[in-house]
Design goal:
- This protein is mainly β.
- 2% of the residues lie in helices and 49% in strands.
- The protein has two helices and 45 strands.
- Strands 11, 12, 13, 14 and 15 form a five-stranded antiparallel β-sheet that branches. Strands 38, 39, 40, 41 and 42 form a five-stranded antiparallel β-sheet that branches. A four-stranded antiparallel β-sheet has the order 3-4-5-6, with no helix packed on it.
- The radius of gyration is 24 Å and the shape is globular.
């Protein structure tokens, strides 16, 4: 964490941030750091963060300097609870309202000594009149902006408001779709609904279905959709409880492994395709992102950090042995960031990304199953320009990956007995606009023969923009005669 001046580019290092940091608040001489499941305090002048007992996510100091506004997820209601508490007096905590996101207090420009709490509900930014002196609400919430991003799992939201009446927010975009493209990147068929927010789709092993996480603005989470690969008919498989992502098919195409984030970081689940099928939670860890299911059905591979983010947790590779009582196996534990573990079709090799060279590249290494599964032998580097996601061709003779420049290359490979790795052949790029949709790591899939690829494309010319609204109170109050 750095503290920068506004006059030039000089800065002071305050501290190394604790894992899974969300935000912070200045409280006198200290900085309160808000993380995913706990809080830390560090002097503004710099030092070592110290964990504290109280948990106040998304903290903001109220004008009296004594009270703290914060937003915490309430698992019972399925929403966030916006609360206020007098610092150092936990018994004074007061629930103010339910929200789908963090809340921000802003003083009123039009009415001194009062203010508003701004927050997101069902994709809309609302303003609730708030008296910071009595810590109380007044009247009904006022709609300010429709269609803006939030992320229920953490409380994040794409808006910010100043103390002088300026509001900035990112307008929601529903402009992507899945499509099959050939090796030149030419669209041969679109898949599923258009003008949605989607970044990845996975083709079932039998080739009949596509599973895709699609973001819903009303809930602020991804739901899992199943799309018929022939008719394009689609249905929502999961809805409501938490953010669902990274669907991985079982070899028999009857179940899916996926990760779900609700009141905690993502955990692993396996579920069927029927509306009444119960989800099975797999043995849990702090943070789990599923990546692959071996074709023999025995192993589910996952990492303990987001595949898309090289953060403080780093990324290690783990397995769940589905044939031996859901036993958890530590497969790759290093100081580096490993992600995207993916089994070769014959189950004898594992492809994965690692930043051991200083840049995230794609590697393969021999995999020995047996009673004590482990990697063995030399580790072979596949990519030279960075790698973000990967897929094997069904016969194991090609590896496809998304390079750091957004292009999808093909690498010919002969696995046995010693891998012979050919030169990467760039195929086509995946548009930045399609890759930049929120809330899901970029992914792609390949057809059985490796001649078609399932990728996200841009289905609408809608532009990405941050909107700045000056004097937002007056702007939204013109037609609100009952306001104040």
């Amino acid at each position: 964490m750095r503290r920068s001046t506004l006059d030039n580019d000089s800065f002071q290092v305050v501290c190394d941030t604790p894992p899974m940091m969300l935000t912070g608040a200045v409280l006198g001489p200290d900085l309160l750091i808000s993380c995913r499941t706990n809080n830390f305090v560090v002097p503004v002048s710099g030092g070592q963060p110290k964990a504290i007992k109280d948990f106040h996510p998304w903290p903001q100091a109220l004008p009296d300097g004594k009270h703290l506004l914060y937003t915490v997820f309430d698992a019972r209601s399925g929403h966030h609870s916006v609360r206020a508490v007098k610092r150092g007096e936990p018994e004074t905590v007061k629930h103010l309202l339910e929200s789908d996101s963090r809340a921000m207090y802003t003083p009123s420009v039009l009415h001194p000594e009062t203010g508003d709490l701004l927050y997101v509900r069902a994709g809309n930014i609302l303003a609730q009149r708030f008296d910071p002196r009595s810590i109380s609400l007044d009247g009904e919430p006022l709609p300010v902006v429709s269609q803006t991003y939030s992320f229920l799992a953490t409380g994040a939201a794409d808006f910010s408001v100043s103390n002088n009446g300026t509001l900035a927010y990112r307008r929601y975009q529903s402009r992507s779709q899945l499509a099959w493209v050939n090796r030149r990147g030419e669209v041969t068929k679109t898949v599923g609904p258009a003008n949605v927010n989607v970044k990845q789709g996975r083709l079932s092993p039998d080739g009949r279905k596509v599973a895709a996480p699609i973001y819903g603005i009303a809930g602020g989470v991804n739901d899992l959709w199943i799309i018929d690969a022939e008719t394009n008919a689609s249905r929502r498989l999961t809805a409501g409880r938490g953010h669902v992502d990274n669907p991985i098919w079982a070899p028999d195409s009857t179940r899916l492994a996926f990760n779900r984030a609700y009141d905690l970081p993502p955990k692993l689940f396996v579920g069927g395709l029927g509306a009444q099928d119960a989800d099975e939670q797999l043995p849990e860890d702090y943070f789990q992102v599923v990546s692959d299911w071996s074709l023999d059905g025995r192993f589910i591979a996952f990492t303990n950090s987001s595949s898309a983010i090289n953060n403080e947790l780093k990324g290690d590779v783990w397995l769940i042995d589905m044939a031996r009582g859901r036993k958890v196996i530590r497969l790759i534990i290093t100081p580096f960031h490993e992600a995207y573990p993916t089994f070769s079709p014959d189950g004898r090799w594992l492809a994965f990304t690692s930043d051991e060279s200083g840049r995230t590249e794609l590697y393969i290494q021999a995999f020995a199953a047996g009673e004590a599964p482990h990697l063995t032998g030399e580790r072979y580097v596949i990519s030279k320009t960075g790698a973000l996601a990967l897929r094997w061709r069904r016969d194991g003779r090609e590896l496809f990956f998304l390079s750091s420049n957004g292009r999808l290359p093909s690498v010919p490979i002969a696995l046995a007995p010693v891998p012979k790795i050919g030169e990467a052949v760039p195929l086509f790029p995946i548009a930045l606009e399609a890759r930049s949709a929120l809330h899901s790591p970029t992914g792609f899939d390949a057809s059985t023969e490796g001649q078609k690829f399932l990728i996200p494309i841009v289905s609408s010319p809608e532009k990405s923009e941050i909107v700045v609204m000056q004097n937002w109170e007056a702007a939204v109050g013109r037609n609100q005669n009952n306001r104040r």
